[in-house]
């Protein structure tokens, strides 16, 4: 029972982390505009840099934490790569276009 609760929490943490990283990666530009509209002292380039690299960092951090805790299942790794690679490439492309 204790192991199944632990595994359920682990899987839900992975799913929530991947969803959060995906939303940050796809909507980083919109979040940057929103943040700049409400707090004009925050530069747009600073905001998009934070959101983009936070998203990419989460895609890298989740498999690393699973590896550290020795729970790295190939399914989790495939999910991280299949989700993380295209979204991270897109986020990095958008960030690079913003930087000029």
- The total tally of domains equals 1
Share in β-strands: under 5%
Q: Element order, helices and strands? A: HHHH
Helix content: over 70%
Low-pLDDT stretches are: none
Strand tally = 0
State the distance separating the first and last CA atoms.
Answer: 54 Å
Q: Given the helix and strand composition, which structural class is it? A: mainly alpha
Tertiary shape: elongated
Tell me, rounded to a whole number, the average pLDDT.
Answer: 88
Note the main sheet. Answer: none
Total of DSSP H or I helical runs spanning 4+ residues: 4
The radius of gyration is 16 Å
List the helices and strands and how they pair.
Layout: H1 2-26, H2 28-38, H3 44-68, H4 74-99
Helix pairs in contact: 1-3, 1-4, 2-3, 3-4
Written account of the structure:
The chain has one domain (2-99). Helix 1 (2-26) packs antiparallel against helix 3 (44-68) and helix 2 (28-38) crosses helix 3. It has helices at residues 2-26, 28-38, 44-68, 74-99. It is elongated, with a radius of gyration of 16 Å. With 100 residues, the chain is mostly helical. The mean pLDDT is 88. The protein contains four helices and no strands.
């Amino acid at each position: 029972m204790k192991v199944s609760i632990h595994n359920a929490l682990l899987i839900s943490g992975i799913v929530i982390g991947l969803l959060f990283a995906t939303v940050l990666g796809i909507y980083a530009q919109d979040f940057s505009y929103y943040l700049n509209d409400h707090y004009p002292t925050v530069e747009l380039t600073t905001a998009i840099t934070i959101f983009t690299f936070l998203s990419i960092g989460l895609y890298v951090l989740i498999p690393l934490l699973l590896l550290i805790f020795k729970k790295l299942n190939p399914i989790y790794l495939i999910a991280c790569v299949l989700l993380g690679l295209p979204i991270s490439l897109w986020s990095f492309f958008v960030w690079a276009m913003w930087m000029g």
